[in-house]
Structures are given as structure tokens and as C-alpha cells.
Amino acid sequence: MPMRDLIVQKFGGTSVDSDEHRRAATRKIIDAKERGTFPVVVVSAIGRAGAPYATDTLRQLLKDVDPSAIPHPREMDTIMACGEIISASVMAATLQSLGYPAIAMTGGLAGIITDGEYGNARIQRIDPTAIHSAIARDEIPVVCGFQGVAENGLAGWHGDLTTLGRGGSDTTAAALGAALNACAVEIYTDVDGIKTADPDMVPDARTLSICTYAELAELTHLGAQVVHPRAAEIAMDYRIPLWIKSTFTDAPGTQIVPEDAAPLDLQRRVTGVAHSGRGVFFHLEIPDGAHKPIIEQEVYRLMAEAGVNIFLTSFSPTTMSFAVTRDRYVVARDLLDGMIVPVGSNPNAQPASTFYIFKFAFGDHPDLAYRAQRPLLRTIEQFIDVVDIPGSVFENVTVVSVVAGGHRLVPGVLASIFETMYQAGIPVHQVADSSMSVSCLIPETEVDRAVQLLHTHFALER
Length: 462
Hints:
- By secondary structure, this protein is α/β, with parallel strands linked by helices.
- Helices cover about 30% and strands about 30% of the residues.
């Protein structure tokens, strides 16, 4: 069958978590086949957190074996992949019961080869031989999302099973679409397409009929739970025709198109309002601006070595600010509390002429390391300068972003955001912008109100 006649259809956990939902999904698959395209199906694990076969449930099952020990990542990947295997088997059986030959395929059988990194593997290549063989037999391939096998297997054996990280089923679908030269990739969810805001926060959020790859990538990176950012990037890189649709309605969904194929008015619109998870904001006052680059470099180095990603960075001649995700807060706090940075009188000076020590107060966690180390440094103050770097910490913050296909072509976006936040009394700790968006760091308690107000201000409702 010609490559252009293939279509990849991906179904998320809520599309396969009951017989009723699976029947709705199979109607989409059968409709595609009856239209003359041959479907290649990708499925996620059944249900969401708490469901018997959901990925998080399987992960906890392994953790419960020995709560005092961290499971080996190889075994963790093996058990987490079981959810998709169960889902693919049940979906294939459902299609068979309706008279449509189908075959369940693990990621390895489907030819998905990864770099072997447990828990967050990257797809290196796809050998679609088994998929093409199934199609030649008129069997619908039902591929396990979220998984593949490592390249480094012994002769005659494939390598270890590896998982692709959060959103891995989306990545599987996009990568298969590229490898199979599919005529389209359809991502099926429980919403009608890409919304102008989270419908749980804004019930009147509108479904976009068309969206560019760049807008999709920006929305997903900024927290929109539509498709995984890595999948959006693959679709954009390979210019794969992509649709976001609902399993449970006949709504047309959202079509994702290249920028050069988008209507001109998309370049001057506000696309939507997105929000991301919990974070913590750090602000440092550095007394001597001449030494600031050395201090910044040391902070960045230590954060990188500890695996702490920082974002929404801001600088002035004597200040440094940044945010970290909530799950890395304790690591960042322990690194910065009482941290000492020796600095010479000039960049090449040896020995150091000044010791800088970070001084924070962490709410219920006073700056213990600072109070322990500061008295020790007093013994050398007659020989060397010891300077405090006072810091502030704002816990429980989140990022709210306004995405515009080219906000620099949309007059007054930044001013409108500030005006809206100011009039509502919502404090803005930090602002960052890109060619596609403007993001604000605000208290987590204000996120619902901020999203609703910005959505209304930019007239994004129906």
C-alpha cells in the first residue's frame, strides 16, 4: 500500500479506559480505514493516575516492594511499559471482535530503537518492517506508545526495554508518522482540539480551528496539556500533517500547519493563555556589580551539576533572579543556603580578596548554613573581606503566559498584561518574553483568576 495512504492515530488513556470509550476509539479507526487510508494505531496506558493499569499505579507497585530502596531504572521501565502492552492488547482484541484484523505490537516489535536511557529515552531510528508486514496482511497495527528498545542488544536479541518519559505516546505517534511518511497524524484526547485556555479554568475557552507548529510548540512548552513538546517538535521538524481531535465527538478538531501555509491573520492574533506548574522564585542582591558575573557563573554551575533547571532569569547590574520547579526547590535551597564564593580583586587574581556568602530566610526553614558558617568567617575578616549576599525566596509561584503567533506584531500585548494584573491586584514577580509569548511569574493562588482575566481581556472567548 502506498505510504501516503497511511494515517497514524494516537489514543490517550481516557480513550481506552472503558469498553464504551474503546468502542468510540475503534469507530475513529474503522472510519479511517473505510475512507481508504490504512490506520496505524498508537495507544497510551489505560486510564490516568489511580487506575489499575495506569503508569503511575504500576510505578508505585514496584516502589512498594521495598519503600526504603530506589528501584533499578531497568526494572522500573519494564513494569511501566506494561500499561501500554495491556492497552494495545485490549484495543487489538476490540477491533478483532468487530471483524477488523488487528495485531498488538510492543515498541520493540514496531521497530522503535532508542538511545537506551531509562525513563527518558530518545528515539534514534524506526525500522517499520513489522508494521509494513502487518499492513500487507490487512492487519491494523496497534502499537504500544511510550516505549522502545535500546540499540545495544546482543546478536539475535533486542536491547533493554526503555520508556520515553512523560508524553511518550505522543512522541511515538509523531515519530511513526515521520518514519512511515504518513499522510497525517491524529492525536485523540477528551477535548475537541486546542483550546484558547484550560477549559477547567475557562469553561468558555474556544477551540482553535487552525494552529501553526510554532504556536503548538510554544503552548506545550508553556504548560498546555495538549500534546507533548517533544512530539510537537518532531511534527514541526518533519512537517507532518497533524490534527488534535476528540475521541468522543465528531468535531473537526484543530489542524496544525506550517507557518508558510497559515492564513496571514494568524500572524497578528493572540493564540491563547497557558499556565505551567508550581515553582519557587529566588532573588539575590549582589553588592559589587564587578563581581556579579563570577557569582552568577558559580550559581549556574552548581545548579547544572545538581540537575536543577532554572527559568525566567532576570538581571540588573547588582541583582540576579530566577525560578526553579517546586520539585527541585529543596535541592536549590540547600545549594544556596550559606554558599560561599571566593572572588579575587580581578578575574585572574589569586588568592581571593573577597568571600561572598549567601544569606536567605526560607520561611519555616531559617538560613541554618549561613548562621553556622558566618561566625567562622569572622576569624579571617581582618585579612579578607566577607560580604553577605542577601536573598529573598517566593514559594508557591506559577507561570501564566499569553501566546501570540508574533506578539511583536500585536500592539500592546505586554502593556495589556501588566494593566490587567495591576488592576486585579495580582503581583508579578518576574516577566520574560520570546518571539511567541510573554510569561509572568505570579502567586499560585492567583493562577485561575489571572488566566480568566487575560482570556477575557484579549477576547478569546467564543
